[in-house]
# Entry
Amino acid sequence: MNVLLNIVKRELASYFSTPLAYVFIVIFLTLIGSFTFYLGNFFVRGQADLNSFFAFHPWVYILLIPAVTMRLWAEERKSGTIELLMTLPLTTTQSVIGKFFAAWIFIFIALILTFPIWITVNYLGQPDNGVILAGYVGSLFMSGAYLSIGSCISAITKNQVIAFVVAATVCFIFTMTGVDIVLNFFKVWAPEFLVSTISSMSFLTHFESITKGVIEIRDFLFYLSVIVFWLFLNVVVVEFKKFN
Amino acid sequence: MISISNITKKFDDFTAVDNLSMAVKSGEVLGFLGPNGAGKSTTMKMITGFIKPTEGTIKVKGMNVETNPIECKKLIGYLPEGAPLYGDMTPMNMLKFVAYTRGMNLQEFKTALDIVVIKTEITDVINQPIDTLSKGYKRRVGLAQALIHDPEILILDEPTDGLDPNQKHHVRNLINEMGKEKAIIISTHILEEVDAVCSRACIIAKGKKIIDSNPKELKKSFKNKNLDSIFREITLNK
# Structure
């Protein structure tokens, strides 16, 4: 447990030792803010909720989360520090989980910094703060799912740019499977069960039901199982890659 | 302390290490010699548990590295090839990270830090980001990181590479001193180093062990030629 905590601390410190963390947070807040007010028509809608805010989270994550995860393993492999890490008395699983949690805590911090929007909506009206809290928790779980994908893909390559592009693409695919345009393409020829399987794999569908206030355990379980799956894959990739 | 029996490492079709066996006892400094690509680093990576041998077993203090990796890794201090370090950290934080990961507490770390910092002479740069340090300092931070938990076994891949003559001298003295009670394996290209620090020399080429003897006897059997010409003779002819 101490070992795990130690990895988390090191990774988190390394985020904040470079400008990356600050650049990320500023861009994240700017993007989310402008989407909410301009594209989401926060004021025009005249409703005391944060739906126009949460609706853009998946799309901002697709773009920004791969930037957070791209260095996790790619940099270790490029600089050779992976050899140092792997010859310390800890398991690969511990390193994978430690790095993942560091990235997750980082996103958690970024999410907390969006609090002015919550104050705004409370100042303007009487929103259902329970639903808003659920939205935040849902968003955090969803970000974890994106992070686990990014972390795993970062372990495949030494090149951070490749890690970024591939991770963004995979994240995009897992999001788009919930959009009607993509689903209609399948509906024409695929059997109903396949269409619903594809749609149920989408990060978007599960997140939308959470932000609408429909809080079901299975939506959170979905994200958790995605995280576990990709982190498991991450361990396998790290183990496999170091032999080559 | 370390016993290697019949290890072979294959990367696809290429055999990096070919049926290598050797043993190192406490109080011994083994110099691992060979041309580039002879399999020195690969062997060291296998001893430290970073990669697994295709065949054969490695035992550290009687424990199998493959089946008991965590316990084995606790006993070993390792300076990997090129001394990779976390460039965004300071030596202080880096050493703290390694010490904590090795299960030390703050008090133990402080005591160990005081000793290691003096041994490796990195006091001046202890709070500078590693990225800004010269090659010699980086190498010594790498060495400090391998020594922080006072391991019984030291595996050092080219420990004096990039050091100036004074620093080389210092590190060799350090190895000599530690060699009295630890089992140490160092790899090197510099043959005078073998004379200076090693109690045994093991020459490998193309993954095979060619010679395993002490430096003095090695010279004797080759009619007192210097090590350079012995090395050339052995590794080029066979």
In short: The interface with chain A takes residues 11, 45, 48-52, 70-71, 73-74, 76, 78, 80-82, 84-89, 93, 97-98, 100-103, 129, 145 of chain B (CB under 8 Å).
